């Protein structure tokens, strides 16, 4: 079946071709982990490489920086908007959740450009406006709404924890509301904060299970090898693995 | 005594033949751990290999993906439904819990096809609708209701934690309400997220106590050897075990 | 002084003969740790080996499985009931706690068969019905009530945690309300979930302090050696101990 | 200055002679750690070895076991009571805290036998009756009341935690209300639950700082050497220390 | 693009030139980690080396010490104020948050000296006056307000934790409200509390990922090498890394 | 600038001469860590060695023990009071916080003897009387009040935790309200509870960063070397450090 390619070769390979069409994908990571860069690259590549139109929903009230940041990465979002291939919607979580006769703020632009991809940056901002007990229901409604519009959605979630002995996808228990989960994680190695990317869940498809190092370069996300020398990577402060020969030396 | 076979040879062997008839089995694991695949395989094998009819209750409101995902695994659920060997019920937790003169939404299909197996995917969704203090009572009532219908039930529970120094079956303390507990767990090994399956409890029967690696393949669940080289597997971030000879070298 | 023997030779040896008459014994462990098997064996051996009649209080509303499970272990509870040597009371926590002019549901059967042993399976179910702040007072009242009836009671408590860096007897702080405490614990060793039994407290008597491995066999509980090769057993995920000679090699 | 001797030679040596007269001593430990045995030995030795009369306040409503347990340890409490050298007061926390015109239930027996030592077994039971926010104030009032009666008090506190990475004297933050603190702790060593005794605080006096192993024998508490071979004893699950020569071998 | 230089050579190098103009930068660290020193140096260097006027908002009610401390570091804040190159505003969080027709206490001085840099010392003080649920909204409003004034802001946040197995940028989950995040952290090494500086996030720019040691000297912040010999630096209590050759020796 | 010397040579050296005049110093540590001894020594040395008068505020209602304890350390507080060089104020937290026309209970003695030093033993007692949400505001007001009286204050804070993987200065988040922070900590080493002293923060001055061992002797506090052989001292249960040569042997 045709896949929704991110256009990042290594990531599409990890995804065995790309995301499944119409899936709601949760992209989780802490501040500075590279969620927005990956999300913009997903949209821009969609337009420029695969002819998929896209919508980028941001809860920033000053989007200038988004254009600026994207330009630094070589992406001219304004141009793509002028060509009706991309829409950037600046709103607030509560407005986005409002519905007026079933219609909400996203429906008009969806009608206009018939997008195939959408990014919500960041779903976690809902926590500012939505009481914790309603959060899961709202996320559920939203994910379902986007699905009925046949949109492949990338839902960003910002985790407060940088590292810890325990790890959960989110602190809101919404992992089961999405089809796929991609995790970005800081990993302290050799006195440096490296970054790991992992596909934790991918519904109806096989996927690469490795924790792969990645960097944010002037061209966007680049993915490298996995951290074979280390144990406890998901805790954020891994231990150097002792060589197998050593461990087995006395067997 | 006759057992309810999963049809997954290694798992049935771990279960000393299969689940006990009429038991309520809790299948717990985090998002992406493979609960739904195992549950569908349990139902499909029931129909195709053992002549047990089944009901699959999902709280997804868009079941198309379920059919799609099942097809990817080689299971044609629609065909099984047309043959009245399987019912897929899309509902919401609160509706499922409602009773109208003792009758609830599950009773009609149960009457119709006289199933022997039922899956609830996922019981943890109740947390969205049921206040924490009532959750255990509702689960208790439901498990009992299914038991009185002579159904062997597989109750899925999604845990938010991927890894941690402490481990509980669920965060709702319902482990004692079920007859058996099967745990699916992510385990970080060599910079890769592997999966472990373990039978924690099996009422009135012996069972395999090992933590066995498993994978979700295009044919469903495949179970492999246990993680003999590692310590602390249940924490999700295990340590490489030092060879015994080494540890004992100086004894 | 005469002791209340469990009839499990190794356990009675650990108890220096058995439990103290009239003591309230807390038997704590997580789901699947073997509490019910040990408790039934305590009652059945009481009747068959020591002429002690017994009462088994269960909060299961479908006791058939209890009879079935016991039969699998070679214990015919119905026969013992017919001989008025055992009573199985199926009730709910709130009913058990009710008193009508000082009389509660347990008093009638106690009068009838004059039991010497009683099991409550499981005291922790009270948490479903009794608010946390009242729990300790109710447990206190119950333990005292049973004591005044000269019953040696085995009070089962189900802990949600399977493993963790910290360990408490219960999450309700009732350890000080009982005379003795026996702990059942899962221990992950060599990629397998083994079980440990430990006597934590025994009022007015010496007792074995070791963490002993045990298994649930077709004849009930069998107790084996302690885990001499491991550290941190009580955390549930122990470390292989380095041989002493090695540690001391350089002394 | 004269000290209040416990009569346990090693402990008195650790205390540089004994407790300070008139001090409120907190004796903390989990269920089964030996608090009551140590407390009774403190009182009995006071009477038999040092001519100090004593009061033992227990919140048990069935004190028979206390007499029985004491007899097992060779202490005939009834005889000491008959000789007006000891009073055992069975009451409940709320009654003990009541005051009627400044008089409370303890004052009468204090007047009668003019005791020098008092034990409250266990102060932590107050948590059942006193709301958390008032607990510290009540403990403060009680400790002060006993001080004004020139009593050397041993206040027992039961901790729910058996082991854990973090350690606090109590979970109620009352450590600063007492003059001295003695800690009893379970320590898992070589698959056995050993016990450690430590003097954490002793106001106005030097004291032994070691974590000493102790056992409860048929003659009461016996104190042995410290755990020199281990690290992390206070966590309850210590690590075997690597020999110093080894660690320094390469210096 | 032109950058906002801190004037600390090594830090500007880590920032690839300096902060981005108009960015809101969160500077987080525990008490004594050096936040105020770094913030003053940022302002003073702005004035003396780059001609950027600045505002320093403090919630101290006795600013004399600020002048004194700055003098100790060789910075004459009074002189800079007299020259209208710096404003020091002593206020309280609630006053700073008040707005009177859109105008708040910061707007007047901003009009007067047209600053380019502003420091809020410390944003975390808001927790004393603003209920937790409103905190994020207030920080959001403030950061946006400063941005619309074209100010490059340094927002200080004091973390209570000195060390721990888990690490979050703040305990208020505001990391996503800022453009960049600089972390100051205590690190226990060789029985000494050293300090680490790390750039966790820098929007629209590459940056150094290392954990660099720094000290507060009589001339302000000095930055040194990273902690290459250690693992788990972000936990605050790192482990000495075993030499790679050793780990690989047996490969 | 002239400093406020503690008169403890090693500590003054760590403080590069002493505390800064007029600073509010937080002295934090758990029960038995030696806070009161250090505080009294600070006051007595102030009087006897540096001619600084002092006030000691205690929330003990029975100050006799304070005099007794001080005498054991060779300090005759009564004599110093008679000479109007020291005032000991026994009060309760709520009374101390009351103000009557701006005047509070401390102002009269301050007027009388014109002290330069003050100790509050212990600020943490406020938690008994002041609701958590007001605590920081009250501490803020108090510290400011003492500052305006030109007093160098030593504010004692009792932490409940003895050891733990995480460490905060206080559990009330008041670290930012004081100018300097001195931490006293128990450290388990070789089966003994040793004590460490550390200067965590010192506003406007350099200071020693080491974790130094100290003891309470018959002459007060004595400070020794740092714990160079250990890692994780701040956790309270450190690990023996492996010799550097060993770690580097294979480099």
Please give a structural write-up:
6 copies of one chain form a homohexamer. With 251 residues, the first copy, chain A, is α/β, with parallel strands linked by helices. In chain A, the strands form 2 sheets. In chain A, strands 3-2-4-5-1-8-9-10-11 form a 9-stranded mixed beta sheet, with helices on both faces. In chain A, a hairpin with a 2-residue loop joins strand 10 and strand 11. Chain A is globular and about 60 Å long. Chain A starts with 8 loop residues before the first helix and ends with a helix. Chains A and B meet through helix 8, strand 7, strand 9, strand 12 and helix 9 of A and helix 3, strand 6, strand 9, strand 13 and helix 9 of B.
Topology:
The structure is a homohexamer of 251-residue chains.
Chain A: H1 9-14, E1 24-30, H2 35-50, E2 54-58, H3 64-72, H4 77-82, E3 86-90, H5 93-97, H6 107-113, E4 117-121, H7 126-129, H8 132-148, E5 152-159, E6 161-163, E7 167-168, E8 180-189, E9 192-202, E10 212-217, E11 220-226, E12 230-231, E13 239-240, H9 244-248
Parallel strand pairs in A: 1-5, 1-8, 2-3, 2-4, 4-5
Antiparallel strand pairs in A: 8-9, 9-10, 10-11, 12-13
């Amino acid at each position: 079946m045709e896949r929704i390619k991110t256009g990042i070769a290594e990531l599409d390979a990890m995804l065995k071709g790309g995301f499944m069409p119409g899936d709601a994908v949760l992209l989780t990571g802490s501040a500075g982990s590279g969620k927005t860069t990956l999300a913009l690259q997903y949209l821009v590549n969609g337009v420029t490489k695969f002819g998929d139109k896209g919508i980028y929903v941001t809860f920033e009230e000053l989007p200038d920086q988004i254009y600026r940041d994207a330009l630094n990465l070589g992406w001219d979002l304004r141009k793509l908007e002028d060509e009706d291939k991309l829409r950037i919607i600046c709103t607030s979580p509560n407005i986005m959740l409002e519905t007026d006769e079933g219609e909400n703020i996203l429906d008009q632009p969806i009608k206009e450009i018939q997008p195939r991809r959408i990014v919500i940056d960041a779903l976690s901002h809902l926590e500012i406006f939505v009481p914790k007990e309603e959060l899961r229901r709202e996320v559920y409604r939203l994910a379902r709404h986007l699905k009925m519009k046949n949109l492949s959605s990338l839902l960003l979630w910002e985790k407060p924890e940088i590292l810890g002995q325990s790890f959960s996808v989110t602190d809101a228990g919404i992992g089961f509301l999405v089809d796929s989960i991609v995790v970005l994680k800081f990993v302290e190695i050799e006195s440096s904060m490296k970054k790991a990317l992992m596909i934790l869940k991918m519904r109806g498809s096989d996927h690469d299970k490795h924790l792969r190092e990645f960097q944010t370069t002037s061209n966007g996300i680049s993915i490298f090898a996995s951290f074979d020398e280390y144990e406890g990577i998901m805790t954020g402060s891994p231990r150097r693995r002792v060589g197998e020969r050593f461990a087995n030396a006395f067997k």
